[in-house]
Amino acid sequence: MTAHTDWYDWHHDYVETGSPLSVRLRIVQRRIAEWLDARPEPSLTVVSMCAGQGRDLLEVLAGRPDADRVHARLLETDDRNAAIARDTVAAAHLGNVTLVQADAGDRASYRGAVPADLVLMAGVFGNITDADVRTTVEVLPELCAPGATVIWTRTRAEPDLTRTIRSWFTGTGFVEESFDAPDGMLISVGVHRFTRTPRPLADDGTFFRFVR
Question: Quick one: which of 201, 195, 130, 211 has its CA closest to 165?
């Protein structure tokens, strides 16, 4: 992925209480925890696109006694963020979680990790073109297991694309489970469940690139 933002520095806002990023993180974590509570299977598969330091998933798993049933692949390109995520995985003894430094926009990065029961896309849709957002939604049936859940985020700053994104999910075979849009903030968190038959992962191809 090509980007101009320093994604390591970007993470600093996560620790500022009340900041939009910290509020968004807590919402995403709550939705992940709810999903885990609703899925009692002994083994679940998770893929996190552009995972950064992995705070959303890793902090939830670190506090759960059933974390070992989650087999997760986190995709991140920044060396510094990847190192922090790996340290978190080690400290929490999350033996079934791996951090792979790879381009999340490249189908090849998902080989061996999909179809997944949960696909996390926090901080993706706000950093790619609108056309790539639509393409990514349309690619999700290649990444999702039957009944999979997708958790995504997007700013509601004008021009607000969230209503259109939600319609793209519907058109691709997803049912909306929730849409969080806190008053006074531009953040939003969507949760959609896949209801159609998955497609095999295509051999190759890039379906999004960061533009920030």
Answer: 130
